[in-house]
Amino acid sequence: MKVMLIKDVYKLGRAGDVKKVADGFGRNFLIPQGLAVLATAGALKQVEKIKGRAEIRRTSQNEELKDLSGQVNGVVLDFIVKAGETGKLYGSITTQDVATALTEKVRFEIKRQQVDMQPIREIGEFTAHIRLTMDLVPVIKITVHREGESAIEEEEKEKPKARPRKSRVKAEAESPAEKATETPAEG
């Protein structure tokens, strides 16, 4: 089915674009949500008008959300969760969890649909994209720690441990014995 987009649709296209989509996606989602119309001859005549309105709307949204994008970009969210010995979480950190934590941190409502990431199911550091508009997509960092451990303890575990050196006492103890075997005993 061919549709003409009325509004920008993430991962599909911008307003005014004509796209071929699956029948169910067009009939059940795009058209009822007001995101697209069927690509008929009458609708195609209005492409320029739709593109012009969308460009104005897009620039105004970008101006409004530019400051928010600056605040959100580079934010670090820490999650302390229960996890097994292998680092697997008992559950997962979802887009809803990230949206709630980010909303508390920047004091602006971020919806879970704006968070672009896969559910986190293990301990470590991850990144997520926050889709404010099609053009403004700041990146945040998510760190996941095991409950009862601090970030410092975890970093120390990850550092490679230095190999223990031979102690001097042991080295000195070996050398007289070696000397005795090398030189014949006088007597």
Helix/strand layout:
Elements: E1 2-5, E2 18-20, H1 23-30, E3 36-38, H2 41-44, H3 47-72, E4 76-81, E5 88-93, H4 95-106, E6 115-116, E7 120-122, E8 124-130, E9 139-146, H5 151-158, H6 168-182
Parallel strand pairs: 4-9
Antiparallel strand pairs: 1-2, 1-3, 5-7, 6-8, 8-9
Describe the protein's architecture and organization.
By secondary structure, the protein is of the alpha+beta class. The chain has two domains: 2-45, Ribosomal Protein L9, domain 1; 71-158, Ribosomal protein L9, C-terminal domain (Ribosomal Protein L9, domain 2), CATH 3.10.430. The chain has helices spanning 23-30, 41-44, 47-72, 95-106, 151-158, 168-182; strands spanning 2-5, 18-20, 36-38, 76-81, 88-93, 115-116, 120-122, 124-130, 139-146. The chain is elongated and about 65 Å long. The N and C termini lie far apart (107 Å). Mean pLDDT is 81; it is low at 161-174.
Structural descriptors:
187 residues, alpha+beta, Ribosomal Protein L9, domain 1, Ribosomal Protein L9, domain 2, 2 domains, 4-stranded mixed sheet
**H/I helix tally:** 6
- Name the CATH superfamily classification of the largest domain: Ribosomal protein L9, C-terminal domain
Q: What shape does the CA trace take?
A: elongated
Radius of gyration: 30 Å
What would the average pLDDT be, to the nearest integer?
Answer: 81
Quantity of strands, as a count: 9
Main sheet overview: 4 strands, mixed
Uncertain spans: 161-174
Q: How would you classify the helix and strand content by structural class?
A: alpha+beta
N-to-C series of helices and strands? EEHEHHEEHEEEEHH
**Class of the largest domain, according to the CATH hierarchy?**
Alpha Beta
* CATH architectural type of the largest domain: Roll
